[in-house]
Each structure stands twice: as structure tokens, then as C-alpha cells.
TrEMBL record:
<keyword id="KW-0436">Ligase</keyword>
<feature type="domain" description="Nicotinate phosphoribosyltransferase N-terminal">
    <location>
        <begin position="54"/>
        <end position="178"/>
    </location>
</feature>
<keyword id="KW-0662">Pyridine nucleotide biosynthesis</keyword>
<keyword id="KW-0328">Glycosyltransferase</keyword>
<protein>
    <recommendedName>
        <fullName>Nicotinate phosphoribosyltransferase</fullName>
        <ecNumber>6.3.4.21</ecNumber>
    </recommendedName>
</protein>
<dbReference type="InterPro" id="IPR040727">
    <property type="entry name" value="NAPRTase_N"/>
</dbReference>
<dbReference type="GO" id="GO:0016757">
    <property type="term" value="F:glycosyltransferase activity"/>
</dbReference>
<dbReference type="GO" id="GO:0034355">
    <property type="term" value="P:NAD+ biosynthetic process via the salvage pathway"/>
</dbReference>
<feature type="domain" description="Nicotinate/nicotinamide phosphoribosyltransferase">
    <location>
        <begin position="199"/>
        <end position="388"/>
    </location>
</feature>
<comment type="similarity">
    <text>Belongs to the NAPRTase family.</text>
</comment>
<keyword id="KW-0808">Transferase</keyword>
<dbReference type="Pfam" id="PF04095">
    <property type="entry name" value="NAPRTase"/>
</dbReference>
<comment type="function">
    <text>Catalyzes the first step in the biosynthesis of NAD from nicotinic acid, the ATP-dependent synthesis of beta-nicotinate D-ribonucleotide from nicotinate and 5-phospho-D-ribose 1-phosphate.</text>
</comment>
<keyword id="KW-0597">Phosphoprotein</keyword>
<dbReference type="InterPro" id="IPR041525">
    <property type="entry name" value="N/Namide_PRibTrfase"/>
</dbReference>
<dbReference type="InterPro" id="IPR036068">
    <property type="entry name" value="Nicotinate_pribotase-like_C"/>
</dbReference>
<dbReference type="InterPro" id="IPR013785">
    <property type="entry name" value="Aldolase_TIM"/>
</dbReference>
């Protein structure tokens, strides 16, 4: 169970979800009604509390301990998140996970059990335990909006604060952004391929149970319209989908009995799974049982394009002209694109969504780019490692346009004074937004509203890229990144 999900569960409460009959059911939304018990899970006889503060690698705490002892922990610093390259052949990336990160950040503090663990394992000294007792991030975070597209060397996130408080956030930030952004990018490609036909998340059984919740949320950023995962639907107030699997048909004595049972329970607007035995017979039976107002049928095997065409013709011949066809069966963006001319109304996507369609991470890194020197002046710093060199100094980020289409990403690096005096080109769009200011989180990026705003933002950002961004052919990033060091 990941901390961000637990934090969201406590914070968001219950939202409005959709029943199988299409009815909205409201549940308590008062955060106070979600008790602290939600933070625990049974593991044998032990109740384990999951906190964001331990979603870290050990070296973050050992670095904190050493710098507190040598006096550098309080040095003001700037850390930045970026990736040196996109997954091979991809034209753009999609920022996702900002809302989850902000949820986790608000709950990033250590309780007595956490402190005892760090002390008993001799991970940190007593002085550091004392420092951690009152830990709360007091710095500032800015970066690319959730849903924004990014490219190699885009400064996706910029974290300002003392070295001590910033270094503890590395693993948490990267684990959220790397996975969520990978899923959102895959979802974006699938939505593009679907050409305005809705895509739905059905990937929960193909990944870790808590990664499934993160993936469901990230898919919405990329343009998906709903999820089969009920916890994700509850946490983020998303449309929930799902009716029956093949086992439901098999447990009944006949397919007709299974359809009658489902219709009796869920109404005629439900979707019947028609490929357990013989699709043609199943469709005929489905319309006989539900009537011409049957909501939908789902096909989960075979040549989906050919079958969808035959099923559409059969439904129309039976008078079920408004019955929708959903297809599933290990779809990815390429399979969806191949179905563009088929009479398919929606897609259910599983494995390829939650694994980033072959790119399950974005290779994002978290690097120190600026820190105060002994005199207290901010000073750009950089790695010079072979193949891993970094650009010194904090960054500004802009996007320029020609004829209303993006033509270049401009990343400006330099000292504080140089950046303050930099004048961007005419019409350049500033890509950096404040998420946290002096420890205070901006709530507009959290919860259901923040998620839907991210989906809308992504659609607009993608529309401003050259049309080649929507190509599924392998290629270079759709626009270049120009890095300028002042």
C-alpha cells in the first residue's frame, strides 16, 4: 500500500460514484469521518502504519544525519526533476502524479514508531531523531502542470528548501512521477489512437494492487474516461465500470440464464459479455432477453475488427441499433489504431496501460542544481560524470510557438541574478507553476477537481503540438529542447 493512496483516502473521503444501473450514489465527504484506522493494514497479528516519510531510500536519512552533524543540512538548495531522454521512439512525455505528490507531502512527517525504527536500526543519530520530530516541509515547489507535455531536459519539478528537508523527498517524488507519467503517456497515445471513442482502465489485475490505483488516476490525466478499480473511483470520484466476466456465464446452466440474471440485477442498460461460447448465438440470445434497448455487448477475444463488424450488422438486423460494442483483450495503442474503421464504441485496456505500453518508467532523476556556499550566496552546481552530466543552476522553462503550434522548448539555466534579469522571447509560454509556497500546498491541484483540470490541460497542451506528436511511428521528440546557460 503506497502512502499517497492512504493519504488520499484519509483526505478526500468518499466521493460520488456511479452504480451499475447508472445511478449516482453519494457517500460521506467529510474528511473527519475518515478515521485514522484507514491508515493501517493487517499483516498477520501486526497492524502496520504506512507513512510517506518512510517511502524513501535509506541514504536520504543517512545524508540528512551526516549534514546535520557537519552543518550543511540547513544550506538553501534547489533540486530539479528531469529526464535525459524520452522512452525510445516516443514523441513527447506527459506529466502525471502532481496531485498524488501533494497529498503525500502534506502527510510527510514521522510518528513515534517511525522515529523508533530509525533509531533502533541506527540509521540516524539521536540528534537527527530530535530534528525529525517536528519535520514539515517548509520550502517551495514549482514545475510543469499535471497534464503538461515534456521533453528531454525539461525541468519538470523544482524543489527549493534546505538540503535536509529537500533530500528526504527524492524517492517519494521520483516513485510517483516516474510511474504515473509513464502510464499517462501510454494513456494519451491510446486516447489519440481511439479517435474520440472512450477508453476505460481495466488494468488492476495486471499490476501491484496499489499501483493499480495510481494507474487508474494517471490514465484519467491521459484522457481515459473511467476505471474498473473501485478504490480509485472512490478516492478520485471517477466513473466506475464493470458488469460480468466469463465465469459468471459459466456458473449458470446456460448462457440465457446468465443473461437473464444479469438483466434482472442490473437492468437492460447493462453490457453483456458475448464471447464465452458462440458470439452469434450469444448476441441473438442477448437481444431476446434484454430487448432492442440492450445497453451494450463486450467482445474479449478473436479478430476484434471482423467480429465487431459482424456483431454490429447482427445487432442492427435485430433492431438493437443503439446497442454499443465494447472490445477488450490485451489492447495497446497500436491495436486500438487498427480498429479505427471498425464499429467499436469503446475500449477496455489493461496490461499495456499499467505497464506504460512498454515504457513502465520515464527515467526521471532528482538532482541538486544550486546551493548556498559558505558565504551564504547561492551557487550553481553540476555533475560532470560521463553520460550523466547536469546543467548547473536553477532553471526557467518556456515554450515558443509559430502559427499557434509549439516549435521549441527553451530551458534557461544560470545564477539567481541572471535568471531574474532574463527576458523571454515574444509569445513564449512560461511552463512553471507554483504548487507549494513556503510549505503551503495549493489545493487546486488535488482531488477530483485537480485531476479533471489536469485531463483538460493535457488535451489542450497536446493540441498545440505539431500533428506528428500523434503519430505512433517511432521518431524523435516532436519539438527540440534548447538549453541556454546564462
Amino acid at each position: 500500500m503506497t502512502s499517497a493512496h492512504i493519504c488520499a483516502l484519509i483526505r478526500l473521503g468518499w466521493g460520488t460514484t456511479t452504480s451499475a444501473r447508472g445511478e449516482s450514489t453519494a457517500a460521506p465527504a467529510n474528511r473527519e469521518e475518515i478515521t485514522q484506522e484507514k491508515r493501517t493494514a493487517n499483516t498477520g497479528d501486526t497492524m502496520v502504519v504506512y507513512d510517506p516519510s518512510l517511502m524513501t531510500d535509506m541514504y536520504e536519512y543517512t545524508m540528512l544525519d551526516a549534514t546535520l552533524q557537519d552543518g550543511t543540512a540547513n544550506r538553501p538548495c534547489v533540486f530539479e526533476v528531469f529526464t535525459r531522454h524520452l522512452p525510445e521512439g516516443r514523441r513527447y512525455g506527459v506529466v502525471a502524479g502532481i496531485g498524488r505528490l501533494l497529498d503525500a507531502l502534506e502527510d510527510f512527517h514521522l510518528d513515534d514508531a517511525d522515529l523508533k525504527f530509525l533509531s533502533d536500526r541506527h540509521i540516524v543519530s539521536r540528534g537527527t531523531v530530535k530534528w525529525l520530530e517536528n519535520y514539515h516541509f517548509t520550502g517551495s515547489i514549482r514545475g510543469y502542470r499535471e497534464g503538461e507535455v515534456y521533453f528531454p531536459n525539461s525541468p519538470i519539478l523544482q524543489v527549493r528548501g534546505s538540503f535536509g528537508e529537500c533530500t528526504l523527498l527524492e524517492t517519494l517524488i521520483l516513485s510517483i512521477l516516474n510511474y504515473d507519467s509513464a502510464v499517462a503517456a501510454a494513456a494519451s497515445r491510446m486516447v489519440t489512437a481511439a479517435k474520440n471513442r472512450p477508453c476505460m482502465d481495466m488494468g488492476g489485475r495486471r499490476t501491484n494492487e496499489w499501483a493499480a490505483v495510481a494507474a487508474a488516476r494517471a490514465s484519467i490525466v491521459g484522457g481515459f474516461k473511467g476505471t474498473a478499480n473501485l478504490l480509485a473511483a472512490k478516492l478520485y470520484d471517477l466513473p466506475a465500470i464493470g458488469t460480468a466476466a466469463h465465469c459468471f456465464t459459466l456458473v449458470h446452466d446456460s448462457e440465457r440464464q446468465a443473461f437473464e440474471s444479469q438483466i434482472a440485477a442490473l437492468g437492460t442498460n447493462t453490457t453483456l459479455l458475448v464471447d464465452t461460447y458462440n458470439i452469434e448465438e450469444a448476441v441473438k440470445t442477448a437481444v431476446e432477453v434484454a430487448g432492442p434497448n440492450l445497453g451494450g455487448v463486450r467482445i474479449d477475444s478473436g479478430d476484434l475488427a471482423a467480429l465487431a463488424q459482424r456483431v454490429r450488422n447482427q445487432l442492427d438486423a435485430l433492431g438493437a441499433t443503439n446497442t454499443k460494442i465494447t472490445v477488450t483483450n490485451d489492447l495497446d495503442e497500436y491495436a486500438i489504431a487498427s480498429l479505427q474503421t471498425a464499429p467499436v464504441d469503446s475500449y477496455g485496456v489493461g496490461t499495456q496501460l499499467v505497464t506504460g505500453s512498454g515504457a513502465p518508467t520515464c527515467a526521471m532523476v532528482y538532482k541538486l542544481t544550486e546551493r548556498a556556499n559558505n558565504a551564504g550566496h547561492m551557487e550553481p552546481v553540476a555533475k560532470k560524470s560521463v553520460d550523466k552530466a547536469t546543467a548547473p543552476g536553477a532553471k526557467l522553462a518556456f515554450r515558443s510557438y509559430e502559427y499557434s503550434l509549439a516549435d521549441c522548448e527553451h530551458v534557461i539555466s544560470g545564477s539567481e541574478s541572471a535568471l531574474e534579469n532574463f527576458v523571454p522571447g515574444e509569445g513564449w509560454e512560461d511552463l512553471l507553476t507554483d504548487f507549494v509556497v513556503n510549505g503551503t500546498v495549493d489545493p487546486q491541484f488535488q482531488g477530483h477537481d485537480g485531476l479533471m483540470a489536469a485531463q483538460d490541460y493535457h488535451a489542450k497542451a497536446l493540441a498545440k503540438l505539431p500533428i506528428t506528436a500523434q503519430s505512433l511511428m517511432r521518431g524523435e521528440p516532436v519539438i527540440p529542447t534548447k538549453l541556454e546557460v546564462l
